[in-house]
Write a structure and sequence with these properties.
206 residues; alpha+beta; Ribosomal Protein S5, domain 2; Alpha-Beta Plaits; 2 domains; five-stranded antiparallel beta sheet; four-stranded antiparallel beta sheet; 5 helices; 30% helix; 36% strand
């Protein structure tokens, strides 16, 4: 997936759906923003509850500012006929933090692999056309540990560099998990590091 600027990525921020029919089979494409595999699993669970009688729930997702987390599933359709065409539509728009599920109601006539590829591609593409693309900053996740007495200094740095607070535990010794915009990472880490007694560690590092 091509990224023209490593500090930003394109995604969607609302759900959308669209239908496509071919020889009696109905394909419903449903696109949604997801920023983790757990968020995708919840989305898939919701769709399966909404469409319990569908013959297939095929999907693809791409996650992360760098787009390196992805999956495509044919969910019982012939190999390569559903998941890959759906992922192809996500990638053709240069999107990440996006999932598309295409629900199929079988109409009694076999479409063949070319017909399935076209149907899943079209349903996914139509769903993605109906939701606006938004541009967001790539964030690097950090864990902060600090004494509560320096909370105001920590919040000042977080606000200055437009960081996102992902999780927080407020105690005598507080723990914050934050997302620092990649474009401001060095400056923000330097400012945080000047605060007395703080531990500032990039998440995923030992």
């Amino acid at each position: 997936m091509l990224q023209s600027d490593p500090n930003y990525f394109q995604t969607i921020d609302q759900k959308s759906s669209a239908e496509f029919s071919d020889r009696g089979s109905k394909f419903i494409g449903i696109a949604a923003p997801v920023n983790s595999i757990d968020a995708f699993k919840l989305f898939l669970s919701e769709v399966k509850k909404e469409h319990p009688k569908a013959s297939h729930h095929c999907f693809a997702y791409r996650i992360g500012g760098d787009g390196l987390v992805f999956r495509a599933s044919d969910a019982g359709e012939p190999a390569g006929s559903a998941g890959r065409p759906i992922l192809g539509q996500i990638d053709s728009k240069g999107l990440t933090d996006v999932a598309v599920i295409v629900v199929r109601y079988f109409g009694g006539t076999l479409l063949g692999v070319p017909g399935l590829i076209n149907a899943y591609k079209t349903a996914a593409g139509l769903a993605l056309q109906l939701t606006p693309v938004v541009r967001k900053q790539v964030e690097i996740k950090y864990e902060l540990q600090f004494d509560y007495t320096v909370t105001n200094e920590v919040l000042k740095a977080i606000r200055r560099f437009n960081c996102n607070i992902l999780e927080q535990e407020l105690q005598l010794f507080s723990v914050y998990k934050i997302g620092i915009p990649r474009i401001h990472e060095q400056e923000c880490v330097r400012m945080l590091g000047e605060i007395r007694g703080i531990s500032c560690k990039k998440m995923g590092e030992a």
